[in-house]
Automatic annotation (TrEMBL):
Annotated stretches, region: Disordered: 363-413
Taxonomic lineage of the native organism: Eukaryota, Fungi, Dikarya, Basidiomycota, Agaricomycotina
Ranges annotated as biased composition (Acidic residues): 377-403
InterPro entries: Helitron_helicase-like
Species name: Mycena pura
Domain Helitron helicase-like residues, every copy: 18-47
The protein's name: Helitron helicase-like domain-containing protein
Compositional bias annotation for Basic and acidic residues: 363-375
Length: 413
């Protein structure tokens, strides 16, 4: 993947490579590695291209009658047609023999049960969920005159989109898509986020293993173990049982043992733990939609539905975070909510988003002098106090971060 990023995408963190790669000058990228059902590893990646416009700007220029915008639309469609292919090169052209074989083996689609696993049966139409069908055909790419949506050409409805250079270099099946609308961008972001947060252990398997652990716990003699020891052993058995049932392919195990990355990114990110902020807002400013008044009929019915002996256990919104210090040791970290509440007057106008992304809490070393009886002076004592550091810290780190704003780049996945 590193060779793909450097050689094919031509990404340069210092932004000195103005020639770019197969997609142009790459501004940023983010990709995550996932394992298929049969264990093979593959990567889903978003690529931001330098100079690309956001979907709203593309739509505005596509619908504009100005000569400059019309020329822009033509150049954009020509770029997409040159980058994305969906037809198998003819055979037996000797210059395209290798590409013909690769596209036929890797990109040609044959329908299977997986294509129709969400089909409910008649009278619903039986369509491939991958939107691949032999009737799909569009000879040229164009813009929709009413919506401004890009309609790319489709020369073979059963061939998945590919880039010829990537296919010939990587020699495996692939897919590529231009994110030219807000709906597509949201769909791709949700798709990758779902892969990142997806649990490897299925819910029904977890419950089955918990049941097995409880049964095994009954083999112990209650007279030999007190309640606390038996409870701890139960938790251990539950954890061991669930872990033992997780299915990991040989490729995944080898990747973890060899310390290969499970994601690839050009930028660094900061985590925002939103739950603590949300709980605080809900307590301070209760929404009428979420918390109806007691005079409301629905609230009255809900009160009747609650058991009279119900106990309010409250919400435990305490934020527990861990991280690594400068030496790589695991340390506990403070609450982001508490840090924001105590940010001081200088940062009073800073939003939560800017505070998390632009402010660091660091250790500040100061000197404190104390005197014993008489004029004898003790050695200096160093102590640590926490201080919030904002713009200056970011200015120092800016040289190490890739430049550019990710809000104005086109996406290719």
């Amino acid at each position: 993947m590193k060779a793909f990023i450097s050689a094919l995408l031509g990404y340069d963190a210092k932004q000195k490579n103005l020639d770019g790669g197969i997609l142009g000058v790459v501004k940023a990228y983010y990709g995550c590695v996932e394992a298929q059902g049969r264990g093979t590893l593959h990567c889903h990646m978003l690529v931001w291209v330098e100079g690309g416009l956001n979907p709203n700007e593309i739509k505005k220029r596509a619908l504009s009658p100005d000569a400059a915008d019309v020329e822009f639309s033509k150049r954009l469609l020509a770029f997409l047609d040159d980058t994305i292919s969906n037809a198998i090169p003819p055979d037996p052209d000797p210059n395209l023999q290798d590409m013909h074989n690769l596209a036929s083996k890797c990109q040609s689609h044959e329908h299977s049960k997986t294509c129709f696993k969400y089909w409910r049966g008649p009278p619903d139409p039986k369509t491939c969920r991958f939107d691949l069908h032999e009737d799909n055909f569009k000879p040229t790419s164009s813009f929709d005159a009413e919506t401004g949506e890009i309609c790319l050409r489709c020369l073979d409805g059963l061939v998945n989109n590919f880039n010829a250079t990537v296919l010939e270099a990587m020699r495996c099946n692939m897919d590529i898509k231009f994110i030219g609308s807000g709906a597509s961008a949201k769909g791709i972001l949700y798709y990758i986020t779902d892969y990142i947060t997806k649990s490897q252990l299925k819910t029904h398997v977890a419950f089955a293993m918990l049941e097995l652990a409880v049964k095994k716990l009954g083999e112990f003699n209650p007279r030999e173990d007190d309640i606390s020891v038996r409870a701890k052993k139960m938790l251990q058995k539950c954890a061991y049982a669930m872990i033992s049932q997780q299915e990991l392919s040989a490729q995944q195990v080898a990747s973890y043992l060899m310390d290969f990355e499970d994601h690839f990114t050009s930028h660094t990110y900061r985590n925002l733990y939103w739950t603590a902020f949300e709980n605080f807002i809900n307590k301070e400013l209760k929404s009428p939609e979420c918390y109806p008044s007691k005079n409301d009929d629905s609230s009255f019915l809900n009160d009747l539905a609650e058991p009279q002996n119900a106990v309010d256990v409250g919400d435990d919104d305490r934020e527990i975070r861990v991280g690594f210090d400068g030496t790589g040791n695991l340390v506990s970290m403070g609450s982001q909510l508490a840090d924001y509440q105590r940010r001081g007057d200088e940062l009073s106008n800073t939003s939560v988003w800017d505070f998390i992304s632009q402010v660091d809490k660091v250790k500040k070393s100061t000197d404190r002098r104390s005197h014993k009886s008489g004029d004898e002076q003790t050695p200096e004592n160093d102590f640590q106090e926490e201080e919030l550091v904002g713009d200056q810290l970011l200015d120092d780190a800016a040289a190490e971060e890739p430049e550019g704003n990710l809000n104005d780049g086109s996406l290719l996945a």
